Amino acid sequence: MSQIKSVTGRGIPLVGNDIDTDRIIPARFLRCVTFDGLGAQVFADDRAQTQGQHAFDQPQYQGATLLVVNRNFGCGSSREHAPQAIAKWGIRAIVGESFAEIFLGNCVAIGMPCVTADSASLQQLQDWLAENPRNSATLDLAAMQVNFGNHSISVCMGEGPRNMFLSGTWDACGQLVAQADQVQKMAVKLPYVSWSRAVH
Amino acid sequence: MSQGTLFDKVWDLHTVGTLPSGQTQLFIGLHLIHEVTSPQAFAMLRDRGLKVLLPERTVATVDHIVPTDNQARPFADDLAEEMMQAIEQNCQANSITFYNIGSGNQGVVHVIAPEQGLTQPGMTIACGDSHTSTHGAFGAIAFGIGTSQVRDVLASQTLALSKLKVRKIEVNGVLAPGVYAKDVILHIIRTLGVTGGVGYAYEFAGTTFEQMSMEERMTICNMAIEGGARCGYVNPDQVTFDYLKGRDFAPKAADWQQAVAWWQSLRSDADAVYDDLTVFDAADIPPTVTWGITPGQGIGVNQQVPTLDSLPESDRYLAEEAYQYMDLAPGQAIAGTKIDVCFIGSCTNGRISDLREAAKIAQGRHVAEGITAFVVPGSERVKQQAEAEGLDKIFAAAGFEWREAGCSMCLAMNSDKLQGRQISASSSNRNFKGRQGSSSGRTLLMSPAMVAAAAVQGAVTDVRKLL
């Protein structure tokens, strides 16, 4: 699995607090058995309503890989379809003031780093991106900074997820499965496992 | 850092080890799956050549996409039918118990697990659904996960997680008549905000929760996630034990006494240390309604839509977005707001006690002209119980449609949807833009009794006038 130490690319500012996962991917698009095709449907209703003015539709932001959002991004439903749709559109990392917990965990699990910054720094970054949509910015996970133009802002990320990205272990599945013997032992030890044997 | 809370004890008991990243590998005692967030997880297992490690620790049902009117197979919606077939095949191929439509045990996943006694104190519970926090009502640590994590639980019965902080939310006193569990949780979220709980587990403590039934506690914990807290819980007590005793999967015979003793030992210690404490007085809580586009934008039913200058600066941008989307003016009274659709159901308020409270208001009255009102029981068992009590007849006589069990218009993945700019009074949990199936549809969240009151009056009404 690949290490993720930095993400460099053009950025896309998406202004607004509490953008929930129903807005990121409306529930009707969850009627599917694969994640294929979700990229085209990201923010479907918001985009239809803003008639081409949504950041994800504006020509200057096409091809962007760094998404910059505000407070409580990804709140609501646990649907992984939301980060999947964002990733399939082309985003590789997200910078925001704060993220909803489940959304954040889903992003880690699919290898898309999310970092936080204070609101003044975010404003500065969003303003710069709006003025410089063709220029690249870099999220540096080693230095915990976003560098853009002549500027630099500090960003934060939980130590656990950060280690996972830097060491290339963000897909935890293999590590978890490797402990199957320990897991089986714990299953035998927990009292309720034998009480509810009747499950089968 | 918290110490001696139920959260700490359950976390420690389920810790398999520490991963190189520093995260905890946590054993998951009960894994619940449904048709929306599991098909891709099974596909990932197949791609990686992995098997389900402990199939007996996973239980499946269908709820999100099931039609609540005509449930004949194949479903009219081809995509829903494809999802249905996927979960049927995946459960069969992996020896996972599946409660299908017509089994008598199907329903909203967060309704069926408690009613069968699958949900028990001291468990860790995960499900690919954010409202998994519901199960915390039993003193379980229960949280929503995404599909890659569903894969991880299927493959390893564990998750990689960082430990949460614990905030004790104490509510003391007796709720006034016409004030329900839904009002309590909407009041808490309104006060602490939709991000207040990020990074925390919420422990709901105090005499108000102690006096609540298990179903009321489920309503509270269900919406912890709407306050940003991935899980919420109530310490198990005699109310919990009385609810569990005799249920299908509850411990039996000699196991029962042992179980009760173990459950008691998991309660937060009297001298437990919390990361934060917030205290409310039950007497301050009115029937509460949301006016905006997040569950935190709530007000007392007799209050007005807040003006910008009454809000902290950080909430104003969202408030302006909400005035516009909801077509409600700052300063306008919420009572009297005309309604188009009334929905009673969901994992928040689709249990038998919810239907009883709504039926009390509906009895002897009739749905106002031009209003579509419908009741969706949370499970096949809830439906059967309600019919045995004659609630279906009360609702039908009052002009409510009586449906089959499912998630229905809480998120509108089936054909139950708002149309255009319709506005609903809803007993569900989210009033996000577009949540109920129309990209311009509007939702007002409230208790089931308040929804029934809105249905018979045709407008948002203080239910206390109809008691």
- Name of the CATH first level of the largest domain in chain B: Alpha Beta
Strand order of the largest sheet of chain B: 5-4-3-6-7
Determine the strand fraction of chain A and express it as a percent band. 15-25%
Q: Give me the strand/helix succession of chain A.
A: EHHEHEHEHEEEHHHH
Q: How does the major sheet of chain A shape up?
A: 7 strands, mixed
Helix content of chain B: 25-40%
Uncertain runs of chain B are: none
Structural class of chain A: alpha/beta
Radius of gyration of chain B, in Å, reads 21 Å
Q: List unreliable stretches of 5+ residues of chain A.
A: none
| CATH homologous superfamily assignment of the largest domain in chain B | Aconitase, domain 3
Please give the number of β-strands of chain A. Answer: 7
What does this entry show, briefly?
By secondary structure, chain A is an alpha/beta fold.
What does this structure look like?
The complex is a heterodimer of chains A (200) and B (467). The longest helix of chain A is centred in the middle third of the chain and has 13 residues, at 119-131. Chain A has a single domain (6-170), classed as Aconitase, domain 4. Chain A has a seven-stranded mixed β-sheet with strand order 4-3-2-1-5-6-7. Chain A is built from nine helices and seven strands. Chain A is 36% helix and 16% strand. In chain A, 50% of the residues are buried. Chain B folds into three domains: 6-161, Aconitase, domain 3 (2-Layer Sandwich); 165-284, 3-Layer(aba) Sandwich (Aconitase, Domain 2), CATH 3.40.1060; 288-465, 2-Layer Sandwich (Aconitase, domain 3), CATH 3.30.499. Chain B is 32% helix and 17% strand. Chain B is built from 16 helices and 19 strands. Chain B has helices spanning 6-13, 39-48, 78-93, 109-115, 147-156, 181-192, 207-210, 214-222, 238-244, 254-266, 313-326, 346-349, 352-362, 380-388, 391-397, 448-457; strands spanning 15-18, 24-27, 30-33, 58-61, 97-99, 124-127, 141-144, 158-161, 165-172, 200-205, 231-233, 276-281, 288-290, 298-300, 341-344, 372-375, 401-402, 423-426, 442-445. In chain B, helix 6 (181-192) runs parallel beside helix 8 and helix 13 (352-362) packs parallel to helix 16 (448-457). At the A-B interface, helix 2, helix 4, helix 6, helix 7 and helix 8 of A face helix 2, helix 3, helix 5, strand 8 and helix 10 of B.
